[in-house]
Amino acid sequence: xxxxxxxxLIVIHTIIWSLIALLSLAVDRSYTMYFWVSRMFPKGxxxxxxxxxxxxxLENLDSSELYVYVSNHSSMYDIPAMQIAFPNRxxxxxxxxxxxxxxxxxxxxxxxxxxxxRESGEKARKSIDRAIDQMKKRRISLLLFAExxxxxxxxxxxxxxxxxxxxxxxxxPVVPTSISGTAAILPKGKLRITPGTITVHFDKPIPTTNxxxxxxxxxxxxxxxxxxxQNKVN
Length: 234
Prior knowledge:
The chain is α/β, with parallel strands linked by helices. The chain has one domain: Glycerol-3-phosphate (1)-acyltransferase. It has 8 helices and 7 strands. α4 links the parallel β3 and β4. The longest helix has 26 residues. The radius of gyration is 17 Å and the shape is globular. The relative contact order is 0.18.
């Protein structure tokens, strides 16, 4: 019963902050106001859910630099946790289906987020091009969940190479990012929110200047996955 009350409050909270986000986009196309909203909105979600957030490793990062954050993914709570944890402006990729949700999806579509159509190779490539453009022209970092989808077990699944190919194309460092605690709070396929603590750890950025081919990308992918697993709190 308590979970349904939390979900109801989260829906109301989401509608209100999505309307504020749409208003911010109407008056400020630099996304300055929007990114402020994108930090306040998830804080409310964690408060409603009685979830605490611990962020470590910020000393490894320079908030003025661009990064591709590569993280594990096991719960919907990974996203609000990361939105708060980012030390700089950062965007994410979303499935196109989310853009169809009234109000919430509209602000995603109009905002700096990257909508991905997995069914169309051409549209997927255009999404990648938009991500590169966002990073270079607007100085916005990017978060990628390298597993491609949420882990059912909470364990870190095999990574996909795309995140590392993209980072190499842009020429920015990759930050191995470990998210712990979210699988226990709301695991994939479950509808029960359990209060707890989420820990986000940022490891030292890894340069991509020497990544020249597929073999280099795979080597980087395996290295980052190993670091993510090592830093994940079980």
